[in-house]
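Hi support team,

I submitted a single chain yesterday and got back a structure, but I'm not sure I'm reading the token output correctly. Could someone confirm the output below corresponds to the sequence I sent? I've pasted both exactly as they appear in my results page.

Thanks,
R.
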Amino acid sequence: MDQVAVEKQQEHKEKIASVIREVGKVVVGQEYMVNRLLIGLFTNGHILLEGVPGLAKTLTVSMLARVLHLDFARIQFTPDLLPADLVGTMIYNQREGKFEVKKGPIFANIILADEINRSPAKVQSALLEAMQEKQVTIGETTFSLDKPFLVMATQNPVEQEGTYPLPEAQVDRFMMKVFVEYPTKEQELEIMRRISNMQFDYTVSPVLTKEDIFDIRNQVNRVKISESLERYIIELVYATRKPREYQLNEQAQYVQFGASPRASINLNLASKALAYMDGRDYVLPEDIKDVAIDVMNHRIIMNYEAEADNVKTSDIIKAILNKVPISK
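Hi R., thanks for writing in. Yes, this is the structure output for that exact sequence:
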């Protein structure tokens, strides 16, 4: 890496650290979630957040949008939501005597799809089409969505009544599925103290511009990954499909379908982003292992035996990481 690139990477690393600090002024103890959201931002990947209510998923995403100085829209998904409520519709203008396009909230840089599993399939498919195609058709006109365009969806794993679980093929379009954990005792004490102060300040300062984001994306693309690590990624993903070939006989009885090729693509991208955010221009095996669970946990389909024995996808992935060697 030449001196200019080194200086640029250092500058970006400092700005990314500033982003995490600014969000931390309002949100306590969710650095891991912010890290994953930034990986999605820098690799053009959408993120699915899953966690019980009250873990600051919505607040974290909205604060991050402010720090990144991007247009933000929060859409609360409900059973009566219609695709037009999301993408927009044609409205008749009586004065002009013609129909006009009224754009929906999807026309923003960061979309928070809150409780995505509360809306019916038509709305979910409208959102996921926009995620995939980066465009929306209203009437006979197709509109390109502004860049960057990132969907951060949340779903509640507790309440299943009145929900419409996302089909596996749609969940697969999310780069990562991140499980948001409870805060520690010390973090929860800090949260309680902050909120009990009625003068608590929710203001944060913008740190990154759109130009910075696009620049970081270009730099992430230049991060090197060796052929042995590329093959390691393929072996990890293939082990989810044919676990018996890797002497994972115990895990094989629980896996119905393995991860799709999107897992390989996103493992590559996420590990590069993680390496760059850590100040390196090359990927280490630890980078791949670090993002493996988030990238693959929603892409492995388990059978009923796994549910009966309380075996989770993360257990399968951990066993694969322990078993699959790095190619020489």
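A quick pointer for reading it: The chain has 14 helices and eleven strands. Let us know if anything else looks off.

Best,
Support desk
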